[in-house]
Amino acid sequence: MVFFVLPLIWLLLAPTKTPLQLLTENPFMFGGIGTLVENWQSLAAFQNGIIWTWLGNAVFYTAAALVLTLVVSIPAGYALALIDFRLRRALLVTTLVVMLIPNTALVLPIFLELSAVRLIGNPLSVILPFSFFPFGVYLTYIYFSTSVSRDLLDAARIDGASEFRVFWGVAMPLATPVIALVGFFNFVGNWNNYFLPFVMVPGRKAPIQVGLAELLSNVPLFNPTAAGTVTIELPTLALATIISVAPVLIIFLFSQRFLVSGMTAGGTKG
């Protein structure tokens, strides 16, 4: 309650207040609709509405990476779980090892790699690393290993179905819960990723999370040198934060059923 619920309540109420009300009045008291509108206008006017550019960038990067993640992760997990091939175990171990490495530890080598092919500043410099999602491969591997019957797939092969037809026509319809789960985790992780986009696509190409840091740098309370320039007040910053988390919240509300079924899939066999 203290560390999660109360800060969230404060965040929702902060945009309805003036900076003075935010510092002197009850922190959990509603301010006013008029003040909320003023803070909204202040946010929209910052650098000619760059907040919407940042938001659009975040949607584009995350959606493109999500599509590539599903195209790669689901077949990879299926192959690791249900197909015998050379180096299968080595690939699985590699997936597990990479999954344990913090993403921030890979930013520098990824930067050097993409710099070598001159992709820094290009949207692909964010989309391609976002699409590499070993945790999604592992989740799919666990699901296909425990929740999809090999006998069912063998029966389809006996009936003359090709391996692609077995995967697409039999395994994929059964994998809806894990697809939703992988998609959700990938979306949330990519949407909230700050360090990689900060390094790869600065300026107007940045997503909303990097934009929030720029807004923060224009708050005099946190950056005294911002005084006298175009400044952002705390209520406006709180409103920008709410806008940045709203897409994740909306997707979570509409996908709860699939997420719950995906989390419990594989808990029992048969």
UniProtKB/TrEMBL annotation:
Compartments, as annotated in UniProt: Cell membrane
Chain ranges passing through the membrane: 58-83, 90-112, 124-144, 165-188, 234-254
Pfam families according to UniProt: BPD_transp_1
Record's keyword annotation contains Membrane: yes
Domain ABC transmembrane type-1: from-to ranges: 55-255
Record keyword Iron present: no
Gene3D superfamilies the UniProt entry points to: MetI-like (1.10.3720.10)
Alphabetized UniProt keyword annotations: Cell membrane, Membrane, Transmembrane, Transmembrane helix, Transport
CDD domains assigned to the protein according to its UniProt record, in alphabetical order: TM_PBP2 (cd06261)
Highest taxon in the source lineage: Bacteria
SUPFAM superfamilies xref list: MetI-like
Location (main, coarse): membrane
Membrane association type: Multi-pass membrane protein
Family statement drawn from the similarity comment of this UniProt entry: Belongs to the binding-protein-dependent transport system permease family.
Protein name, per record: Carbohydrate ABC transporter permease
Organism listed in the record: Microbacterium psychrotolerans
Lineage: Bacteria, Bacillati, Actinomycetota, Actinomycetes, Micrococcales
